[in-house]
Specification:
Chain lengths: 473, 473
């Protein structure tokens, strides 16, 4: 296989490597044409453009292993890519033209669903929604869910430790991974696809590949935990006077409904204003300072009664000014639409600087207060569009800016407040290439040194997704 | 500080080290007298006797760090010890007389309880029960619970990734650890005591210290996740014809009660026979082939009704032959007593070979059947005492033996069946020194190589709990 002349000039790795990859993978497994590789070269938000040497699309774990070995022999770096739905540029190559993008999309099989043992085994290229549907067809629930679930692939979900809407109940993806199959930097395959709920036999090495964004190895398949589908759900929207009241409401809901709560979302008045302006959707509880969306689900009767109790008590205590409880699935979807349109309406409003931060749940009111004051003083003219998963301590603290505002300065202001509350500068989106320098500034040097030691042990030549999460050695 | 003459002879590390440790820690921080160190030299079951050079009892993280540095300079190995309640000999020294036991017991403070943010921060030496009580005093639940909770220390609970009775609902300890403070092999302290439910900023390095039994670093403090206390509970005991019926009952309970189930225990007829014989406790549902204990808890009304529904349906389908639902906390405790007395009554019956195995939940009936046949053929005269956490796939498959039976041969028979079902030879008890050789036989060499690579990266001199989990390099 040879390259067209117009491409050859910006391909750094030897043609010999591309020839060998083509021989091993066949025509369906190798893309070299500009038009074919373009979708893999940039993230979906088009913020992180790169230039791959080529794109490989192996169809089996053995092919992935051979790709890793061939690239290693050639000294070429590999960038694993799933559905390319990440928000931190973790799955796209740099601009050197020398990195090989490894798409897992052709490894899309669901290897098995066990509705009795409550597990699902899928290859890395399986679309999350397809896996969710397979669980549902078996009468079970795969409880990881987020906006990009129709495009995100299981391997990427694992490699980024995806969060989403149900973390308050089911935790991050890490807690749902029972087994992994991984290809290491030397091309060896480690098969830990055990469908066990409990396994304390030796080091739980799979933890190293969850949330490390393909920098330590390539996830090729996973065993995920399923749960029983709750029969009933209850969704409520409440207008609250301020975040402190929302926090009291969180405690009340925990006490009355417990871990049947599967979402506890906080939405600012600014956010709802944007949704009304750009999507024409109006909150049924009015334009409050803040709004809380609670969803709970259980197979026990008494769920709706408990949610009504929460509403009644919150209104009585004046922690809620108004509230509605959805009477149907349709109404629940309408309430969710308010929350789900925030990001899109923010984009229609103009430019913004996004922050995906977390702080201890108890600190959320003080954090919001202090961050607001810091921005008002340090970046006058900006507007805060804050919303997010309050039940996890995760606030998407986005700042609408004008042409004169510098996003890095705003990052520094917001993340400085996050530091003061012992928070995280990336609650769920990961680091990718976007926040590499910031991570190094915000985490203690001892933590960064430990991370580098792990990287050096597992990828001594630095060929797996170099420059992501950690700066190049 | 000098040693009495009768001890000096079996202390290999230089007196200079012990002198320096004494200077740094003071008299309360160093034990050298035979009588003082004896309780630290052997595990509570008295199966793994060792001989420490001395016992250090640091009172702060800084003291732990200095102990690690001093020992490293002297080339002395350290054996971290919590409550010394482990079942695999992971916390006791070898017989060389050269290892320093590092007891965390003096670092016992609870640094904080946050009932709103649902976290508790405790030092490694805090007794688990004390932490549970602190959570309860704040109206919350620390959901890790097991027989030794009155002696086990938080550091050991984390370092062994303890399981216990509520894993089916709340998972292993790993899922409850939000933050850790750790002393590394070079004496540096890494502080990751963040009280965050969600944190995807960089490598989640704390995972390396959970369940690795002190071989990669020393846990000095932890932030643990709390949950709301469920208001209602329901406990039922059912006689079932066989494990296949128990499995159908598990699915029924999942569908009707969902993740409000917090224990689903399977107890063999042999187990109940031992409890009747040695403790005089009789099952209210008769001497069935197998018995299932289900406990569920929720703040929602409808829990008892759902449990009654499960009983009714199971009886109707003949998956249960008889069943009772506890009418009071006292009755629930009586039902639990049947389960809790199994281990003690097994010991009174005579010698046994214990197995702490897990298999995919769906495979439990076939596993029990096959293991029974393999033992009948390969070790005639043995009796199987099987019981355990069926909802986690975890069976304590203990084998009562006579004087002529060899425990290693019985291990090999049982673990061979475990392998055929894709199971684990240690579901919750860990590897310690007890199963080091077996682990190496049952896990794939690629997995063992990966574990060794991690060990070499974090403890290159092999001074942290050498010979535990992994054989000495």
């Amino acid at each position: 296989m040879t390259l067209p002349a117009h491409q050859a000039q910006h391909v750094t790795p030897p043609h010999a490597l591309i020839d060998r990859l083509g021989q091993r993978l066949g025509p369906a497994g190798l893309l070299t044409q500009e038009a074919d590789i373009a979708p893999f070269a940039i993230d979906w938000r088009r913020l992180f453009p790169g230039r791959p040497a080529c794109v490989v699309r192996p169809a089996s774990t053995a092919e992935v292993a051979d790709v890793v070995r061939l690239c290693r022999e050639a000294g070429a770096a590999l960038v694993p890519q799933g559905g390319n739905t990440g928000l931190a540029g973790g799955a796209v190559p740099d601009g050197s033209g020398s990195q090989v993008v490894l798409s897992l999309a052709r490894m899309a099989a669901i290897r098995g669903v066990d509705p009795v043992g409550l597990t699902l085994t899928a290859e890395a290229g399986c679309v999350l929604k397809v896996a969710q549907d397979a669980a549902e067809a078996a009468g079970r629930l795969l409880p990881v869910s987020f906006a990009a679930e129709g495009s995100a692939l299981v391997g990427g979900v694992v490699a980024t430790n995806a969060g989403g809407i149900n973390v308050v109940r089911y935790g991050m993806t890490r807690g749902l991974v029972l087994g992994l199959e991984v290809v290491l930097a030397d091309g060896s395959v480690v098969d830990g696809l055990r469908a066990l709920r409990k396994d304390n036999a030796g080091y739980d090495w799979k933890q190293l590949f969850i949330g490390t964004e393909g920098t330590l190895g390539i996830v090729t398949a996973a065993v995920l935990r399923l749960v029983a589908r709750p029969r009933h759900s209850a969704t409520a929207l409440l207008a609250v006077p301020d975040p402190a009241a929302a926090l009291r409401l969180f405690t009340l809901a925990q006490e009355e409904i417990g871990d049947s709560i599967q979402a506890f979302e906080l939405i600012s008045g600014t956010s709802l204003g944007l949704v009304e302006k750009h999507a024409g959707l109006k909150s049924p509880v009015g334009q409050a300072g803040w709004t809380v969306l609670i969803e709970a689900a259980s197979s026990l009767s008494g769920l709706r009664e408990a949610m009504e109790g929460v509403l009644g008590t919150a209104l009585e205590r004046e922690d809620a000014l108004d509230g509605v409880l959805a009477e149907s699935g349709r109404q629940a979807a309408d309430l969710w639409a308010l929350r789900e349109h925030v990001t899109e309406c923010e984009a229609r409003e103009g430019k913004s600087v996004k922050h995906d931060v977390s702080v201890p749940i108890t600190a959320i009111p003080d954090f919001l207060d202090e961050a607001g004051r810091v921005l008002a003083a340090g970046a006058p003219g900006t507007r805060v569009n804050a919303f997010g998963h309050m039940g996890d301590g995760n606030i998407h603290y986005n700042v609408l800016i004008g042409p004169d505002h510098a996003s890095e300065a705003i990052n520094a202001l917001v993340h400085g407040v996050v530091d003061r509350y012992g928070g995280s500068i990336s609650a769920e989106h990961g680091i990718g290439q976007y926040r590499v320098a910031e991570l190094a500034r915000h985490r203690h040097p001892d933590e960064m040194a430990l991370a580098r030691r792990i990287k050096a042990a597992l990828d001594p030549e630095g060929l797996l997704n170099p420059g992501k999460v950690l700066a190049r050695g």
